[in-house]
Write a structure and sequence with these properties.
Layout: H1 3-20, E1 27-32, E2 35-41, H2 44-47, H3 54-66, E3 74-80, H4 84-92, E4 97-102, E5 127-129, H5 134-154
Parallel strand pairs: 3-4, 4-5
Antiparallel strand pairs: 1-2, 1-3
Helix pairs in contact: 1-5
Amino acid sequence: MEIDERYMQEALSLAEEAGQDMETPIGCVIVHEGKIIGRGRNRRNRAGNALAHAEIEAINEACLAMGDWRLEQCTMYVTLEPCPMCAGAIVQARLPKVVMGAMNPKAGCCGSILDMLHEERFNHQVETLSGCMEEESRHLLQSFFAGLRQKAKSGKS
């Protein structure tokens, strides 16, 4: 298995956990020198907090592991293209590379709606790779939302 796929599989496992908790299934890991130092999954509903995104959780954990807010030697793997808040946090954390699963045409800010990671007016730009295990990432999201629609149709909560 290719190295990017190995780490994306870890992010997908976290996304699956989020989905089982009735959270939008998004997962993220941050890797430094071949070791996962940050993990995150979506927890907005459980936390009742708009900031409880997978990327923010993983960045917080990675900063603690590194003892610094700069994650300059790290790579982020995330199952869905980051939103504007998370893209901003990626730039601020000085992550040099982000590997994404599925793109997000409704809220993505790493190429879909905006491309904050390549904005030359910022003091930091980020290398991106999209489409890593894209089918698996997309399937997880589509299955989750199909299940929600089915529950809504049947009147179950």
